[in-house]
Amino acid sequence: MITAKNIWKRYNDQVVLERINISVNEGEFVTLVGASGCGKSTFLKMLLGIESPSTGDLLLDNQPIRTEPDSDRGIVFQHYSVFPHMTVLENVMAARAFARKGFSGYLFGQAKRDARTAALEILEQVGLSHAITRYPHELSGGMRQRLAIAQALLGKPRILLLDEPFGALDPGIRADMHQLVLDLWRTYKLTVFMVTHDLKEGFYLGTRLWVFDKVRHDPQAPSAYGATITYDLPIGKIDTSLYEQIDNQLRPVIIPDEPSMETPTHD
Ligand SMILES: Nc1ncnc2c1ncn2[C@@H]1O[C@H](COP(=O)(O)OP(=O)(O)OP(=O)(O)O)[C@@H](O)[C@H]1O
């Protein structure tokens, strides 16, 4: 379904990603982990089509990924914008209006009725039926992410892209959201790519886990090399020592503070 052939991504003279070669089948749930700034979101944006590889090919069903939004792909970010003056239902219907070709900003007649029916259906799926008349400021963080997921799923995408969608949520709410995402993945037979900072979350949710990391460093030119996929693991088939190894690799290196020259050191 998705194939990446020797992808490199550069911003000006900064190499962000290099030598990405992968193949993903329909229905896989891929979780992406790696140090901050190593290009995970950039990879998701290439899958969405709002960024393109600098070199190499990124293919969906053997065709280059289209650079305009279409119903194949939906995305949820950690923080996202809603229309504050619109209710939950109106926000989801607005997502439909934006997704329509030749967008005019408004839906009329049958198109509006269809959008309302589709929006109500997806809001029920994400557990927001009871809140359709609420405004965004009346929603909890978890409910807001449910709304974001409803918007992303409205066009019935085949691919759902999740960029740290639960990073800002409390642990209990996160557990509910994990269940929701797994239910939606199974119900809609989605292919999911999810960036997370939480390795445990990555192992729990995914069928496959990718670790992004830089394997080449030039201290004189820190931007000369990018990250690549250093581990591509089928989940459920690896032993715990490897888990610990990756966990250690992802831990930020803590540099001790230099002792201050002004602080007296004598007792
Ligand atoms: N549009 C852009 N123009 C220039 N540089 C960019 C652009 N987008 C991203 N970058 C740079 O590319 C690198 C990778 O960013 P990206 O957001 O993909 O990393 P990430 O792994 O998702 O990080 P995090 O885990 O902190 O979200 C960063 O150094 C970032 O500054």
TrEMBL record:
GO terms for molecular function: ATP binding; ATP hydrolysis activity. Pfam families: ABC_tran. The keyword rRNA processing does not apply. Its EC number is 3.6.3.-. It is an enzyme of class 3 (hydrolase). The keyword Transferase does not apply. Residues 2-239 form the ABC transporter domain. CDD domains: ABC_NrtD_SsuB_transporters (cd03293). Keywords: ATP-binding, Hydrolase, Nucleotide-binding, Transport. This is Aliphatic sulfonates import ATP-binding protein SsuB.
